[in-house]
């Protein structure tokens, strides 16, 4: 299926309002959905007989900075049997960013969402084990945020060089 | 500097920075917590595993990561596209060429110059990437053998890997971290005589892989340690995002070199070996190792075909400049872009967001194959013995540089 067919299939099955907009400039082409619908839409994309996006390849967090005041979650989906692909983007507010977990659908979401939480502080609702994964548990702040200020000392080690 | 306090020691430091999941007070009868790593040879790097065990039986494995975290994504926010390549090398440091290839390809596609890259450049890229794939598989197989008691294989494999490393050093100037594949081209053309030497090497190598197969794969002790251990069904593998030899070991014929057909792979004839469960159950540790050995043969096949092209149709010419297309300023249009490619460990992906105004990516995320593959470790090893846990870690083939990035 190409992007247009995928788009119409989602619209006919889940209703027109689910897809807020599309980004055809992106590669793979992207749909932008509302954070509230995430689990519903992703569950449909994974289980539907014609789409069958069985492989969640990559979860990316993104901070647009304080000017735009938004954060984003980007999901890259691939279908192994049908060989089609889709990017799903979700925009979040920068104050108290939170999104539902996809661990119920894909187990691979577990660690990848933990990494997003670790780097951006986006709270993952219903995540079974939401801890920092790469940074030490007592590290202050979320390093990949655009306004991140590193702490001056960590255990007497000067952080900034 | 000398008399400045460099580290404030406190007994509680470790407990605060990497808290254990299990507490010794909560343990039931006969249960115990065993800490493996971060400094343990069989964890293949600085991986720390917290194992809840009941006697010899593993109940749960909790990996603690981050000991080799070098802030790749933070660095990438401040560096121009071409200067990120050396950082990319240091992710999967055993297969730097493959990662470089994936990265350069991604940026080229964003710039729209991927179709005009000269064929010779593409063939050289595939050649060095496959050499590096061999080197990576050799380390995987050799160290896996050593993990479970077959020490000979490690010496043989490092001996043969040394030849590859020297070949790549001859081409690029570095043994492991090459910075050889550039956006839009290569650092240098292959040195004069490289193709001939490389061909000599493949003739030398083929019987050696056979030898490896006989000493490790067909060895009864090895089969006893790996067959029916860590069985990974294919549906679980897909759900966990497992890729590479691990997924193929579970019997699914899925290789991005064929599926996406990037670079000149569609022009090259090679097979994709998949696990068949010959020694035990489909998807066990033995199958994964077997797939890696078979992939070595396939890589040799690819190398030979590349060499044929590089000495024939696309042979060296006096005026060939591998840097001719390398852009001075790399400034892609504003877009989101995701590229994936087949690394020795699995699918390596890069997500880019270019803002269209600068030559620095707004966001560059790396999806490490080892990171995702490692996440299944608890599923594979729970219920087994502690010695099987070691067999499982080795069969996943992780490299911690890519897990922690």
TrEMBL record, chain A:
Its EC number is 7.1.1.-. It comes from the Bacteria. HAMAP family: NDH1_NuoC. Keywords: Cell membrane, Membrane, NAD, Quinone, Translocase, Transport. It is a peripheral membrane protein. It comes from Roseivirga ehrenbergii (strain DSM 102268 / JCM 13514 / KCTC 12282 / NCIMB 14502 / KMM 6017). InterPro entries: NADH_DH_suC, NADH_quin_OxRdtase_su_C/D-like, NADH_UbQ_OxRdtase_30kDa_su, NADH_UbQ_OxRdtase_CS. GO terms for molecular function: NADH dehydrogenase (quinone) (non-electrogenic) activity; NADH dehydrogenase (ubiquinone) activity; quinone binding. NCBIfam families: NuoC_fam. It is found in: Cell membrane. This is NADH-quinone oxidoreductase subunit C. NDH-1 shuttles electrons from NADH, via FMN and iron-sulfur (Fe-S) centers, to quinones in the respiratory chain. The immediate electron acceptor for the enzyme in this species is believed to be a menaquinone. Couples the redox reaction to proton translocation (for every two electrons transferred, four hydrogen ions are translocated across the cytoplasmic membrane), and thus conserves the redox energy in a proton gradient. Belongs to the complex I 30 kDa subunit family. It catalyses: a quinone + NADH + 5 H(+)(in) = a quinol + NAD(+) + 4 H(+)(out). One of its GO terms (cellular component) is plasma membrane.
UniProtKB/TrEMBL annotation, chain B:
Residues 147-405 form the NADH-quinone oxidoreductase subunit D domain. It is an enzyme of class 7 (translocase). It is a peripheral membrane protein. Its EC number is 7.1.1.-. One of its GO terms (molecular function) is NAD binding. It catalyses: a quinone + NADH + 5 H(+)(in) = a quinol + NAD(+) + 4 H(+)(out). It is found in: Cell membrane. Keywords: Cell membrane, Membrane, NAD, Quinone, Translocase, Transport. GO terms for cellular component: plasma membrane. Belongs to the complex I 49 kDa subunit family. NDH-1 shuttles electrons from NADH, via FMN and iron-sulfur (Fe-S) centers, to quinones in the respiratory chain. The immediate electron acceptor for the enzyme in this species is believed to be a menaquinone. Couples the redox reaction to proton translocation (for every two electrons transferred, four hydrogen ions are translocated across the cytoplasmic membrane), and thus conserves the redox energy in a proton gradient. NDH-1 is composed of 14 different subunits. Subunits NuoB, C, D, E, F, and G constitute the peripheral sector of the complex. This is NADH-quinone oxidoreductase subunit D.
């Amino acid at each position: 299926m190409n992007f247009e067919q995928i788009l119409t299939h989602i619209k006919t099955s889940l209703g027109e309002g689910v897809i807020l907009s599309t980004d055809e400039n992106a590669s793979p082409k992207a749909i932008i959905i509302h954070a509230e619908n995430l689990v519903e839409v992703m569950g449909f994309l994974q289980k539907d007989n014609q789409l069958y996006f069985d492989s969640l390849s990559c979860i990316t967090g993104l901070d647009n900075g304080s000017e735009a005041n938004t954060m984003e979650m980007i999901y890259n989906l691939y279908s192994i049997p049908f060989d089609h692909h889709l990017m799903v983007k979700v925009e979040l507010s920068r104050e108290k960013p939170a999104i539902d977990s996809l661990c119920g659908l894909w187990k691979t979401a577990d660690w990848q969402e933990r990494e997003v939480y670790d780097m951006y502080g986006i709270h993952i609702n219903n995540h079974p084990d939401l801890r920092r994964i790469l940074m030490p548990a007592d590290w202050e702040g979320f390093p990949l945020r655009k306004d991140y200020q590193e702490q001056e000392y960590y255990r007497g080690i000067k952080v900034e060089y | 500097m000398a008399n400045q306090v460099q580290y404030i020691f406190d007994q509680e430091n470790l407990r605060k920075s990497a808290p254990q999941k299990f507490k010794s007070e909560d343990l039931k009868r006969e249960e115990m917590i065993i800490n493996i790593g971060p400094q343990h040879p069989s964890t293949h790097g600085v991986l720390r595993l917290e194992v809840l065990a009941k006697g010899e039986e593993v109940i749960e494995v909790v990996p603690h990561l981050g000991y080799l975290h070098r802030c790749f994504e933070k660095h990438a926010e401040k560096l121009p596209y071409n200067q990120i390549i050396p950082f990319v090398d240091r992710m999967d440091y055993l297969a730097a060429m493959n990662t470089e290839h994936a990265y350069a390809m991604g940026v080229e596609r964003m710039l729209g110059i991927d179709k005009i890259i000269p064929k010779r450049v593409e063939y050289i890229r595939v050649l060095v990437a496959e050499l590096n794939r061999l080197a990576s598989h050799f380390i995987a197989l050799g160290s896996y053998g050593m993990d479970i008691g077959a020490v000979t294989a490690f010496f043989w494999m490092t001996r043969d890997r040394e030849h590859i490393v020297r070949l790549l050093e001859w081409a690029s100037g570095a043994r492991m971290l090459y910075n050889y594949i550039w956006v839009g081209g290569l650092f240098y053309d292959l040195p004069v005589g490289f193709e001939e030497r490389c061909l000599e090497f493949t003739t030398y190598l083929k019987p050696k892989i056979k030898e490896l197969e006989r000493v490790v794969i067909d060895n009864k002790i090895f089969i006893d340690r790996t067959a029916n251990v860590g069985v990974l069904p294919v549906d679980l593998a897909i759900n966990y995002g497992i890729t590479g030899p691990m997924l193929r070991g579970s019997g699914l014929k899925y290789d991005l070199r064929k599926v996406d057909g990037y670079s000149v792979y569609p022009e090259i004839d090679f097979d994709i070996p998949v696990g068949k469960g010959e020694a035990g159950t489909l998807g066990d540790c033995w199958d994964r190792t077997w797939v890696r050995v078979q992939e070595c043969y396939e890589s040799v096949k690819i190398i030979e075909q590349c060499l044929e092209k590089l000495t024939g149709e696309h042979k060296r010419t006096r005026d060939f400049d591998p840097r001719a297309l390398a852009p001075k300023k790399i400034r892609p249009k504003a877009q989101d872009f995701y590229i994936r490619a087949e690394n020795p460990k699995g699918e390596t992906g890069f997500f880019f967001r270019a803002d269209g105004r600068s030559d620095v990516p707004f966001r560059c995320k790396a999806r490490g194959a080892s990171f995702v593959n490692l996440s299944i470790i608890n599923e594979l090893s729970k219920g087994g013995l502690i010695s099987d846990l070691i067999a499982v870690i080795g069969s996943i083939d992780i490299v911690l540089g890519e897990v922690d990035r």
